[in-house]
## 1
Amino acid sequence: MKISRLIKESSLPTLDSELLLSCVLQKSKEWLFTNPDFGLSNELLEKFNELQKKRREGVSIAALVGSKEFFGLEFKVNENVLIPRPETEILVKEVLKIQPKSLLDVGTGSGCVAISVKKNLSNCEVWASDISPTALKVAQKNSQKLGVKIEFIESDLLEKTSREFEIIVANLPYVPQNSVEIEAGVKKFEPSLALFSGSDGLDLIRKLLIQISKLSQKPKFVLLEFSGDEQTEVLKIFTSKIFPNSKIEILLDLAGIPRVLKLQS
Ligand code: GLN
């Protein structure tokens, strides 16, 4: 069947079917536009139909095509990592403003934060940790593909890290365990290890903050992603107790939602 007809007759939004077709054909979207009469073999048609089915079940386009753009770079993703979200780009932007000489990205997942920082700050020594060896494999592949040198560590938060860092950043799981707000497709197909963290979503963030407060050499900055007003209140109280001498700021994302806790010692 011809490309033009497949797109027209697909029950998916046009952009979705275009992206899935370019993945199946291994061609750019522009190529599809200039070759509307190209006919798919039965084998490729079957592949396309399989992807369309999964998309209708709620799997994200990024997971289906195996990649996602973040901070202008293309990251490989799979079922073992959280798909990079645009709101996480503010973590990277904030780091670039500070221009640190060393950084640790805790719970790196696909590696999107650590790698984007290193791409833009080549003098910064970048370390990235994750508890999941399968996630670290994805991050490692991404760092090789994008040509940056990052030190990877398999570690439960700071357990296996020993050196001092100027900045610690983290986009840890922060979705409350029984959240009704999370999209069905996200809940069903993204790794729960990367999403959920206790009844208010903040268990891991609290654990990390406690670990940081006990370091003999504390980082100058800590940047942690979270979400919303409720978590803001809890985090402000918790953080001011264990870091009484630090400056605490809350940064908003582009939608005006509180998104990043910034600590400066
Ligand atoms: N922002 C993501 C979501 O709401 C969650 C990311 C995270 O837990 N770190 O789906």
## 2
Amino acid sequence: MKIILQKGDITEIAVDAIVNAANSSLMGGGGVDGAIHRKGGPGILEECKRIAARRGGCPTGEAVITTAGKLPARYVIHTVGPVWRGGQSGEPELLAACYRNSLQLAAEHGVRSIAFPNISTGVYRFPKEAAAEIAVRTVKECLSGLVSDLESVIFVCFDEENFEIYQRLVS
Ligand code: AR6
């Protein structure tokens, strides 16, 4: 089981599943969400709409899975990170739940390789250092407890600041 760090654009990574930092509506948005829908094509949004119609979107901390459309990945796992409101509104626990629930869903679908963006650290303003610590700790905890086919987890850092933080944490 490997934890890998990569700098760049998650839409270009050929893994079984990439994770999207979505919002509760599942109807797309900016940042990594915008890039995934733009490059993956309309098939992803069609499935998101069906899921939203069935279960009213996706609550913060939870995750749903769809096709990856035209992307090189097989699946997109959409998870909804918490908006940072100062840290006293359950943000750390909700962010950990995003990583945990995404890995659980991946395991249920026989995913062998998965790539995560730095959930909540863009528009949702979660402090990057704290978010990275939660991401790395939660993934390590899950991997030691989860029975799955997972062989590699890639943390994809789009911005230099996150990349430097993760370099210190993933060694
Ligand atoms: N590949 C990898 N990482 C990326 C990419 C990319 N192509 N583009 C941006 N990032 P954000 P959030 C990084 O804002 O904070 C959307 O509108 C970016 O540098 O995408 O969870 C949704 O619809 C940052 O480190 O997601 C929601 O409404 C990280 O991805 C809201 O934003 C997350 O930034 C979610 O906010």
